[in-house]
Amino acid sequence: MIRVAAVDDDRMLLEGLRSWLADVPGLRLVATVGTVAELTAPADVVLLDLRLRDGTLPADNIRRLVADGNRVLVISTVPDRDQVIAAIRAGAGGYLTKDNDLATLVGALHAVAAGDTAYSPELAHALANDPAGPPLSAQERAVLVAYASGLTLTAAARRAGVSPHTAKAYLDRVKDKYRQAGRPTWTKLDLANRAREDGLL
């Protein structure tokens, strides 16, 4: 069961989410609040509106939620690539525009809960070709940094709090994302070079 919380100051959207997710197997909406500060219920994924009326900054909200152990899926009315990149760099696991259907939302929630990334279809291509580097989930980034800094796969997995098998899967996804972005990445040295180029080391 994936526990979902929603942080949005649009009450109509929150009511819509309650209705949408009420009968979805494997998902349970545990909280709907207007600000990050109001969220107290533990959740596996937090749906976070990009811009809240309380004046908080999106990146600060994301970092606060991630620091509390949450995975974050940003939802917004605006498919702005720069905002997406800023959200991902702050630690969000994905970014959906609010015009997507229930199936897309459910798929994104499952992906983010599993430590993967999820984006609105219209943003995926632009992100994959971003010159600053492909978007990585927080877990992918943690394993990459540990491994590229010189640790063995086992040690990198231990530092990231995952099994060696899971760490290898993350690294394979990281390599694939870099290759899709036109930046060949096959070896540990390649990973270290990409991490340095993108300011991760």
From TrEMBL:
One of its GO terms (biological process) is phosphorelay signal transduction system. SUPFAM superfamilies: C-terminal effector domain of the bipartite response regulators, CheY-like. This is DNA-binding NarL/FixJ family response regulator. The modification 4-aspartylphosphate is found at D49. It comes from the Bacteria. SMART domains: REC. The keyword Transcription regulation applies. Residues 3-113 form the Response regulatory domain. It holds the Pfam family Response_reg. Keywords: DNA-binding, Phosphoprotein, Transcription, Transcription regulation. Gene3D superfamilies: 3.40.50.2300. It comes from Longispora fulva. Transmembrane segments: none annotated. One of its GO terms (molecular function) is DNA binding.
